[in-house]
């Protein structure tokens, strides 16, 4: 169990356009509080209108995939609509405080499923903690909360 004296707050930074990611983030935050007694603060970067600010506490990012063009493998892809989250992570050295990213998407898109989250993990050098489809299930919330708590403990011990 995480030592609450060492870590009592986790930011959940996400972008939600259709409401699916927001729904998941809400259930994820509620689960972290009820099962791990971990307080969270929510930041939907969509509401920031491209503003950024520094985050000096650990955070997890949650990112849906919206791509245009190509198949995501050999004919390319262009990230659309979710760029403000990447800009937020890149600003003010925020990437140094991101403990990992969770991707969402639709499995019907095959190789493009959660591709943007995979690209962010590679771009910024933090791990992809996992993925969920569309709004995610209760089992997804539990699984990803457990992985997040394990990662948070690892990061806390390293500092």
UniProtKB/TrEMBL annotation:
Segments forming a coiled coil: none
Domain of life according to the entry: Bacteria
Molecular-function annotations in GO: FMN binding
Matches recorded under Pfam families: Flavodoxin_NdrI
Name of the protein: Putative NrdI-like protein
